[in-house]
Description:
alpha+beta
Amino acid sequence: MNRLLVAGAGLGGLAFVAFGGTANAEHAVSIPAALRDVPRTPGLQTAVLAGGCFWGVEAVFEHVRGVKSVTSGYAGGSAETATYEAVSTETTGHAEAVRIVYDPAQVTYATLLRVYFSVAHNPTELNRQGPDSGPSYRSAIFAQNPAQRAVAAAYIAQLQKAHAFPAPIVTRIEQGNFYQAESYHQNFFRDNPFHPYIVRFDKPKIAALREAFPTILRKTAG
């Protein structure tokens, strides 16, 4: 779906029944913290997460304290086809994803996963998120090392056992390189606050983040 060309049809309200079975996207899904975490090491670390349109996922993590940078891009396919035009054909194997550089002394990988599952996207939607459909909008964690893979797998199992969602979690743990998206996709939420897609589908995520995670918000977040 070419979001850049979508008109603002049906934008009368922000409420929609989709995320986690809740009636209003402005409320996060209440899920437990992960029981396991990646061992802390000195220096900055990287996480790569895919959960539908990268505009909103990028915006969510930009608001988290301890996150140093968030980059929108494509993960799971080849460098040759890592372009918006090619990925939009749904034939390249990429997922729209974000690369998160974070300080584990300020925010843990487990906390990032909790935000990812409860606010950033709906992990029970298969190959789609909201109005966007296709494998490039799949829910996927691109583990950067064995420790991340183990923690992500354990957390998915924990959430499934707790029946945290009304439907099975379809999030995949994958491998693959990350390729930065075109410049016009970077900071799209911040630069286009009145874009119809941002207003309807992404601003509610920030509202949910503020409600559910007030203690980890960046003080300078917009």
